[in-house]
Write a structure and sequence with these properties.
heterodimer; A: outer membrane lipoprotein receptor (LolB), chain A; 11-stranded antiparallel sheet; 25 helices; 35% helix; 25% strand; globular; B: mainly alpha; Rna Polymerase Sigma Factor, Chain: A; 0% strand
Chain lengths: 841, 186
């Protein structure tokens, strides 16, 4: 079917399912049925506007009212009558006058569903003020805006109209008092402020609450003040009709440093791009009265982490971003050191690769170069770059906490780094990227770069690198004959290069691709010859080096061969399918007794094989192979009872001398083996007759290599005289939904207790839900919950899969899914298929 | 009362704004004009929630009543349709909740018997029901009463291009699920 036809057909299917003829709306009939609503609508025409509507009528007016609310507390109301308790409103306003400094967080909400706009305000008794709204930091003095800055663009800007107005009105607060607010609220008529009789005795012992009710609308205003200190802590204006309101939360502290209100000091920080993130700027110089950390800068002081301070930054004519930073080293709690910046991003959304990094102890200086993935062919120039410093700890899987970021809009464009700093050339950066492309199988990118390198490998080191990259690509693409040919051609040059003194011990890595190519083409003798030849090369070591230096170089060379073997051996086993014995012979190794390979797995040998459970299975395989010397192999599958209950630690393997069949040991409970019948559809929906699930298996299955697990399970069921019946029955179902929150980085989501699985690539909800169902239904009674995923989330959500066993596990699961990813479950009963395994009838 | 011809979208947008402003100012006729224009859209919005034609019409009409009373709260006349749709959505959700409390189990069994007679259509409905709320609403708006992309965009408060993109993705998802159920062939 053509694409357009398919689309049309799909349209027809959907329309047939939910489509409907034209709908007609009879407004006159509707009016007749909704007389009450029409009456309310018409009556609204004549109502006076409410406070917040009046304020909203003009954006500026609204801010004037907010200023009035704050200033009303600041200046106070001369006299308010009414049956106040022991604390009079006048006391509160009087006490407020004596505080040296206060801050107010102001939240203005237009509607119940709207996010509030936030303004942060700081004022000192001397009339100095500072305010932050959005990305603006605004300074004021005696009611006048002195300077405004944007912390995103790091530039001086015109103050936000509303915020500037707010500052202005606060500065001339004598004109503004709570009177003003009340006049607006009460349509010009003054009313008493009466304390709220708070039914909560505990609160009312500590606080006094003043309420003002509008007489023209349902709106009200409430002020909370502390009884002891008599300071207001919160003011709220509320409209019960739609939740529109303004909240002001006060806090108090000692005087802040002079710099806090000084626009010149702030401008200085903006000019200094070294490590000042937006959070640092927004709250620069602010001191918390409780001594808590407010900014990343404060945090670094405590944690020991700090942002490297950028000394030079530039972009080369070919587009490489280079960064030289001081105070570059950070140390993890475990004592490991990491340097400089880890990542870079730009406003063009380009992907970058780090192609150079070094650290100089003298001056604790890091030098790094990042290139866009299209380097050196990407001629775009970004408008902004963001450098991230992350804790680099390769032993802590998935944890790379962000130390901080620096946004830059200015750098040395089209300039190279200062001489004597970065020890690389534009061509070396490109070849480094080409290596990265080749290793990541981005062959086109690699070839595009190496095509630009001219010269002969015999005389030009860049050309030799080009050929080595080419060799790597050929081997990766399994073009082994071509690779062997190129390797043979390069061998003399590689030997010369290995022999030549470069200031450090030579390493044999340059030969490994050629060795791989030889092994893949089964030229095993040649692998041995080349390996021996390299080992026999006597590299040139200058006479001027002393005995100690020579010994060091020799040790380094030995380590180099060990490392080359470490890289080479897994390729030879996995890809060239050579046995451990063959590899030992070629490279003069003793893999089974070499500590280097104790965690490696070879196709024909695993260090685990030395354990008794593997030896048991090897013996059993030999017995089975013996058995089949005198018996025909099954056409598809055969089940053999075993007379001994031995421990085995394998799933299925070939028998010695038999390539067509696998043998699989069964020594688990029957329920555990059959659980995977029709899996994953059957997850949590399999029920077995009493006693069946617990039946112990002591059998081996021998089957043709192409037979999949479902068929094997079916044969096992048949062997034991069992059948599967599908019934439709009500089941307890958990419908999973997501609350729409932004998901955490999956690497941050860990299991609350025991872990059943983890993946550095992350696990999705499908995996986690299936695991939960498996754990809750492992008894094969089909009594645990079945989860239906309605979250719509397909991305990875967790690094680990937790263990949720038993009924407690269910509660832990609910809590974990809700807290970590905003996934909640609604319990329902639905009819669905259950697979019942029973004696054949 | 303003009478409007919505043929030209630019003019329609301006006239619609004037209709909303007039309705906010107290002109019931203008509100009637708006209600007539958005009736099918609102029924579609409600249908995506209640999955019942009659109930969807009730929800749309109820939403108009609520909108009329709260019209003065509307801050941006240009977003009237999206505002109305939100009221309609909430009304429909309330109706579903009320119905869930009221419907006896026997009725559910009856529904499944009816469904058995129209396997494919019912299966398509089920697949649509399994979409996310926003996807379901989009599909319903487009296919319930064949609303144009322009009208869908107006009700959802998103651009025409966004409607096109989301619709394409949602249809691909639908096709994939229908294929898994053997109803749709590639």
């Amino acid at each position: 079917m053509k694409s357009q036809d398919k689309d049309k057909k799909l349209d027809e299917l959907i329309t047939a399912a939910i489509g409907r003829e034209d709908l007609k709306f009879d407004f006159d009939k509707w009016k007749g049925e909704h007389a009450e609503e029409i009456r309310v609508y018409e009556s609204q025409r004549h109502q006076p506007g409410r406070l917040l509507n009046l304020i909203r009528g003009s954006g500026v007016l609204r801010y004037a009212a907010v200023a009035a609310i704050v200033a009303g507390v600041l200046i106070g109301v001369p006299r308010l009558t009414g049956g106040l308790t022991t604390i009079a409103w006048a006391d509160v306003t009087e006490r407020f006058k004596s505080v040296p400094f206060f801050s107010a967080a102001i939240y203005i909400k237009d509607d119940v569903t709207n996010e509030p706009k936030q303004i942060e305000l700081w004022m000192s008794r001397g009339g100095k003020a500072r305010l932050r709204t959005g990305t603006q930091v605004i300074f004021g003095d005696q009611g006048k805006v002195t300077r405004a800055f944007d912390i995103k663009t790091r530039a001086k800007v015109e103050a936000d109209e509303h915020a500037g107005f707010l500052l202005q009105k606060l500065g001339s607060a004598k004109e503004f008092s709570l009177d003003s607010v009340m006049k607006v609220v009460f349509g010009g008529r003054m009313e008493d402020v009466t304390p709220l009789i708070n039914p909560d005795a505990v609160v009312s012992r500590d606080m006094v609450v003043f309420d003002i009710q509008s007489t023209i609308s349902p709106e009200w205003l409430r002020i909370w003040a502390l009884r002891e200190s008599r300071l207001p802590v919160r003011i709220k204006v509320w409209d019960p009709r739609d939740g529109e309101g303004t909240d002001v939360v006060f806090s108090y502290s000692r005087e802040q440093p002079d710099e806090f209100f000084d626009p010149n000091a702030f401008a200085g920080l903006l000019r200094d791009s070294r490590g000042n993130s937006r959070a640092n700027l927004a709250y620069a110089y602010l001191k918390d009265p409780g001594g808590r950390r407010i900014t990343p800068e404060d945090m670094f002081e405590d944690s020991g982490f700090h942002m490297p301070q950028i000394k030079h930054v530039g972009i080369t004519p070919k587009g490489a971003v280079w960064v030289i930073a001081e105070k570059a080293s950070n140390r993890t709690p475990e004592g490991r050191v990491f340097y400089g910046f880890e990542e870079i991003a730009d406003d063009l959304d380009r992907v970058y690769q780090e192609v150079y990094s070094s650290h100089r102890v003298d001056g604790d200086q890091s030098m790094e170069v990042f290139v866009p993935i299209g380097y050196p062919f990407d001629g775009n120039i970004p408008g902004k770059i963001t450098l991230s410093c992350k804790m680099k700890d390769y032993e802590a899987l998935g944890r790379e906490p962000l130390v901080g970021t620096v946004e830059l809009t200015q750098w040395k464009q089209n300039e190279m780094w200062p001489e004597g700093t970065i020890g690389s050339s534009p061509q070396e950066l490109a070849t480094t990227l080409a290596w990265q492309h080749a290793n990541a199988k981005r062959y086109t990118g690699a070839e595009r770069i190496i095509a630009t390198i001219e010269g002969e490998p015999e005389t030009d080191s860049a050309a030799l690198t080009r050929e080595r990259i080419r060799l790597r690509i050929l081997v990766s693409q399994e073009k082994c004959a071509e690779a062997v040919e190129l390797g043979q051609r390069l061998m003399p040059t590689l030997e010369d290069d290995y022999r030549r003194w470069k200031g450090y011990a030579p390493h044999p890595d340059a030969f490994t691709d050629y060795l791989r190519a030889l092994a893949y083409t089964k030229r095993l003798d040649e692998v041995k010859q080349v390996w021996d030849k390299i080992k026999a090369i006597d590299p040139h070591i200058p006479d001027r080096l002393n005995k100690r230096a020579r010994r060091h170089i020799e040790e380094d060379m030995q380590a180099g061969f060990k490392n080359a073997a470490r890289i080479l051996v897994p390729h030879l086993s996995r890809e060239a399918h050579l046995t451990v014995e063959q590899i030992n012979e070629m490279l003069q190794l003793d893999i089974k007794n070499d500590e280097t390979f104790k965690h490696y797995v070879f196709w024909d040998w695993n260090p685990e094989f030395e354990k008794p459970e593997f030896k048991n299975w090897q013996r059993r395989l030999s017995e089975l192979a013996e058995y089949y010397k005198t018996h025909p192999l099954p056409e598809r599958m055969e089940i053999l009872e075993r007379d001994r209950d031995l421990e085995f630690a394998v799933r299925f393997t070939r028998m010695p001398g038999i390539d067509t069949h696998f043998a699989e040991p069964l020594r688990c409970k029957f329920g555990e083996y059959v659980y995977f019948y029709k899996y994953p559809e059957s997850a949590g929906r399999l029920r077995m007759e009493d006693g069946l699930a617990e039946m112990k298996l002591q059998h081996d299955i021998v089957f043709k290599t192409e037979i999949e697990q479902p068929e094997r399970i079916a044969v096992v069921l048949d062997y034991f005289g069992l059948e599967v019946v599908e019934v439709n029955e009500p089941r307890q179902v958990w419908v999973a939904k997501h609350d729409g929150r932004k998901l955490k980085d999956f690497k941050e989501v860990k299991a609350p207790g025991k872990v059943t699985a983890m993946s550095s690539g992350g696990l999705d909800l499908e995996y986690l839900f299936r695991s939960l169902m498996d754990q809750q239904n492992r008894d094969a009674k089909a009594a645990g919950p079945v989860i239906i995923d309605r979250t719509g989330l397909t991305q990875r959500v967790s690094l680990e899969c937790p263990s949720f066993e038993g009924s407690e596990g269910l509660e832990t699961a609910r809590k974990w899914f809700a807290e970590e990813m905003g996934v909640t479950f609604t319990e329902e009963v639905r009819r669905m298929t259950t697979y019942i395994i029973r004696k054949r009838q | 009362m303003l009478l409007v011809n919505f043929r030209c979208s630019k003019v329609a947008g301006e006239l619609q704004k004037r209709l909303v402003e007039a309705a906010v100012a107290g002109d019931l006729g203008s509100f009637g004009e708006l209600a007539t224009r958005y009736y099918s859209s609102m029924v579609a919005v409600a249908y995506s929630v209640v999955a019942d034609h009659q109930l969807a019409e009730d929800a749309a009409q109820e939403a108009f009543a609520k909108a009329l009373v709260g019209l003065r709260k509307l801050k941006k006349p240009a977003r009237f349709a999206a505002w109305l749709a939100q009221i309609c959505r909430n009304t429909a959700v309330d109706m579903v909740r009320a119905r869930a409390r009221a419907v006896p189990t026997a009725d559910i069994a009856d529904c499944s018997e009816i469904a058995a007679e129209q396997v494919d259509t019912e299966a398509v409905r089920e697949v649509i029901a399994e979409l996310s709320r926003t996807e379901r609403e989009l599909i319903t708006l487009r296919y319930y009463n064949r609303l144009s992309y322009e009208q869908v965009s107006d009700v959802l408060g998103i651009s025409r291009a966004a409607v096109n993109g989301r619709l394409t993705r949602t249809k691909q998802k639908l096709a994939k699920r229908l294929k898994q159920q053997g109803i749709w062939e590639s």
